[in-house]
Amino acid sequence: MNVDSRAESVRRPQALLGVALLLLLAGGWLCPPLGYFMVFCMVMAMGIGALKGRAWCDWMCPRGSFWDSFLSKASRGARVPALFRSTAFRLLWLGLLMTMLAVNLRPVWGDWYLMGKPFVKILTVTTAVGLVLGAVFHPRIWCMFCPMGTLANWLGRGRKPLSVSAACVQCGLCETVCRMRIDPGQYRGSGVVTHGDCLKCSRCVDRCPKKALSF
Fold first, then answer.
1. Which of 40, 26, 143 is nearest to 84 (CA)?
2. Is 193 helix (H, G, I), strand (E, B) or coil?
3. b/e for 178-187, b at 16 or more Cβ within 10 A?
4. How far apart are CA 64 and CA 109, in angstroms?
5. What CATH code is carried by the domain that includes residue 180?
6. Is the pTM of this model over 0.85?
């Protein structure tokens, strides 16, 4: 399956999941328990991450699907500054969101109806941040420091790795289709892409003119 045909096969579910994110954001403020869906996404991101790396973030994540289906049309598609991918920046966001969650959960603890609201707040704030930065830089920039994505990165590093054979000529075409802006050609020497943010989507595999990439 080439890049275009694979993209076509996931376009509809991605668009539907992207719309679901908008409905969740709007409905969550009216019905706070909808916020628990965020807990489901967190569990799935880490659970699948521990087994297959960041495969959940490919298209199953509603927010990731929204970035690909809608935000990509308004984004500048600029190169992402190294700061946003640094470990320190990831840890900062992880700490901020966990603190925000704890502070907002404490006043409503024990009320299962209202306990969903803090998750809706976090989803709203982080989506707003992703929208602004995604428009200015790259549509998937939020995914590069998303706390759940970061945990999936750490839990799944080394799972289902992408192999790079000696046939690779480091042309850079694979990087142009990678939504996480990873360049597999840089790993030609070791033969294995060890970058934990790989979404396991196979777009680079399909794009490689030398068939040098494989899972």
1. 143
2. strand
3. bbbebbbbeb
4. 30
5. 3.30.70
6. yes
